Automatic annotation (TrEMBL):
This is BTB/POZ domain containing protein-like. InterPro entries: BPM1-6 (IPR045005), BTB/POZ_dom (IPR000210), MATH/TRAF_dom (IPR002083), SKP1/BTB/POZ_sf (IPR011333), TRAF-like (IPR008974). Residues 212-291 form the BTB domain. Residues 34-173 form the MATH domain. SUPFAM superfamilies: POZ domain, TRAF domain-like.
Amino acid sequence: MGQTTSKSAGDGKPKPKTTSAAAAAAAVVSETATGSMTMRIAGYSQTKGIGVGNSINSSKFHAGGHTWYIAYYPDGDREEYSDWVSVYLCLARPAAAAAADDVVEAKFTLSLLSGTYGAVVEEKICTAKKFSFANGYWPSWGHTRFIKRKKMDSRLWSCLHLDGQSFYIRCNITMDITSGGRRCQAATTAVAVPPPDLHRHLAALLGSGVGADVRIRVGGKLFAAHKNVLAARSPVFMAELFGNNGGKDQKEAKAAAAATGNGVIRIDDMDLRVFRAMLQFIYTDTLPKIDKGDTAFMAQNLLVAAHRYGIERLKSISVDMIRKGA
């Protein structure tokens, strides 16, 4: 068999004609796309009991040009797993430019995040899944047994109690899209914006003591802290550390510095656990896990501490804890 040829209109010489197989091979293009969605579930206790197979769905988000959503089944997606929570990533609509011979390989992570702390309570990584649009089937992937409901209740209790019974489900997805017939035009993706993590960095700063420039003595124990953080979060600490004008008045600032003596602030009449919780809140805007038996004591004393140091959000949270515990 000879090579198929055709004439060029320009020079009249035979010119090789690309075979269909070579054309197909040249047109195969692979691209990588990413996307992320964080779904907030409010009123956790009200979601339980909606029935097996009934889901709460996130708003839709885009990744790789395709439209996706998260499906959360608080009572499981089938009868035999009714004591489990099920979570799925579902394809709502393929990209308009998707061809029947496009192949998508998706890898994704589903994470359960606490509402108050933003900490990962449970996380499942799904290995590569492949699908194409040739059969018109739009897939959904995930975990029927994502987390036992009893385990979820116990691990989320304290943060749900403090944050109005809300928590989050996050999905991060990465796709390799191979287009068999033409260049994939689904390159426009949503920007993956993870939840804020400033509180994590400040918690690490507090825990490490790096750069600490003031110490606080409570009940015979010394805590290393950072003046700027304390002052930024509490007007009382601001006045104590930098003067009433926040250090603008040099004379007053020097007087405030002298008042702290050797760099130690002494706090009397405060329970050590309450101070630890308040200090964590100052740095991270979150409270540590509080045992059910200590809720009333901690709430009442945190309210006193919040009034004492002018920490408004801590006041509101403490009042809410007292109200819910009544």
